[in-house]
Design a protein that fits this description.
alpha+beta; Alpha-Beta Plaits; 4-stranded antiparallel sheet; 40% helix; 26% strand
Length: 144
């Protein structure tokens, strides 16, 4: 198995998702990801998603292709796809930390980005890796 991750962002096609819609989406993702051996993390804020998918390369690429066709997403942007040595979120079929804009702005290296109110849609590879590391090692990990 070639361990791989895909980090992408997208926006919701509609104005916003309700808590119930997000909870329903997470339940389905967790079940399907568990079956496919995929782990990862999802952030949602201001109509934008930031997601990390990790697992076997073929499974991750297949899932990303399916998500890219989902009409609930627009402006799909693949930020990083690369082989990895180990999973960052091995225990999460789909972690969903609840984090505020203020908390995001406290992450070193991202504070100037999120204090401007920018969305995940504007993250480049460097900041995406910074955000990934913050959640891999940060306090939100224990909150789930």
């Amino acid at each position: 198995m070639e361990l791989f991750h895909c980090i992408y962002c997208s926006a919701t096609a509609k104005a916003a998702m309700t808590k119930e819609e997000l909870d329903g989406l997470l339940a389905i993702c967790r079940e399907k990801n568990g079956e496919a051996g995929i782990t990862g993390m999802l952030l949602y804020q201001n109509r934008s998603f930031f997601q990390v998918l990790e697992g076997d390369r073929k499974a991750v690429e297949s899932l990303f292709a399916k998500i890219a066709k989902d009409k609930r997403h627009v402006r799909m942007t693949k930020i990083i796809t690369e082989p990895i040595e180990e999973r960052a979120f091995a225990e999460w079929t789909m972690g969903f930390p609840k984090v505020s804009s203020k908390e995001l702005a406290e992450i070193p290296g991202l504070n100037d980005f999120f204090t401007r109110g920018d969305s995940y849609m504007k993250l480049g590879p460097g900041r995406a890796k910074t955000l990934l590391e913050a959640f891999k090692e940060g306090r939100w990990r224990a909150a789930l």
